[in-house]
């Protein structure tokens, strides 16, 4: 990243105007945004953060990155179904392994735990890695029918249908208390309704891991307000660092 701050500002303005129907352009510009945020030195990051905060770019950059991740998951799920692709071939697997290991430690997750993942998307990479690394059974909620169906087809191809199940359901429609650990995806919304329902339904002692975006990583994802999390007791938090984009907050019912 040798560009001066003026060139970076121009580039950010350009990618904020990305045509979201152009999947190739979305991927190229989202990866540029990643490299800019994850590889820039601290002083440059401060300049970038100040520029974005004083502009109208933040929401558009978040929409771009969400579109990138969604496209990536849909395309990879289809590749898994139609070919011999495995989880290790997924572009973000290495990054997610670090995230999942952090969350396994955060929740002291074990093989006998019943885990629910809310907002699993078109390709349930997090649920797959929880299962691979711990051996636990994972249920997933995905509110869009097409994405839930695509996920289940990919899981069947990966021979994981007996270990991971995806239900077309909203997080705020949780209706049972059988889970030991509930993980809320960063893109799962609305967070306030999901958290309220979990804390009204879950049994005492249930661990809730809520993914959040902090500091400059809010360029990628919409912020989860601290005052929302502070309505509940925050026990511990693991902040994103180095090549990570997602932080994880532990709450306990």
TrEMBL record:
GO annotations under biological process? nicotianamine biosynthetic process
Gene3D superfamilies registered for this protein in UniProt: Vaccinia Virus protein VP39 (3.40.50.150)
Do the record's keywords include Mitochondrion? no
Source organism per UniProt: Candidatus Gottesmanbacteria bacterium RIFCSPHIGHO2_01_FULL_39_10
Q: What is this protein called?
A: Nicotianamine synthase
Classification via SUPFAM superfamilies: S-adenosyl-L-methionine-dependent methyltransferases (SSF53335)
In terms of Pfam families, this protein maps to:
NAS
User: What InterPro entries has UniProt attached to this entry?
Assistant: Nicotian_synth, SAM-dependent_MTases_sf
Q: Per its UniProt entry, which superkingdom is the organism in?
A: Bacteria
């Amino acid at each position: 990243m040798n560009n001066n701050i003026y060139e970076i500002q121009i580039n950010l303005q350009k990618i904020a105007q990305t045509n979201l129907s152009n999947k190739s352009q979305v991927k190229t510009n989202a990866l540029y945004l990643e490299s800019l945020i994850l590889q820039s030195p601290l002083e440059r990051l401060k300049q970038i953060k100040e520029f974005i905060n004083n502009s109208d770019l933040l929401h558009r950059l978040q929409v771009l990155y969400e579109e990138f991740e969604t496209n990536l998951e849909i395309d990879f799920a289809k590749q898994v179904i139609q070919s011999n692709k495995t989880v290790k071939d997924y572009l973000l697997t290495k990054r997610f392994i670090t995230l999942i290991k952090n969350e396994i430690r955060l929740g002291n997750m074990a093989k006998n735990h019943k885990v629910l993942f809310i907002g699993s998307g078109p390709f349930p990479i997090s649920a797959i890695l929880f299962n691979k690394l711990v051996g636990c059974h994972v249920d997933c909620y995905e509110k869009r029918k097409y994405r839930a169906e695509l996920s289940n087809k990919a899981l069947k191809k990966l021979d994981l249908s007996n270990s991971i199940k995806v239900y077309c359901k909203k997080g705020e429609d949780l209706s049972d208390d059988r889970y030991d650990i509930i993980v809320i995806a960063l893109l799962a919304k609305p967070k306030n309704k999901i958290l309220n329902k979990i804390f009204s339904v879950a049994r005492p002692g249930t661990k809730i891991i809520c993914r959040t975006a902090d500091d400059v990583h809010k360029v990628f994802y919409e912020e989860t307000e601290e005052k929302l999390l502070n309505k509940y007791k925050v026990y511990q938090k693991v902040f994103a660092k180095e090549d990570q984009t997602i932080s994880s907050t532990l709450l306990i019912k």
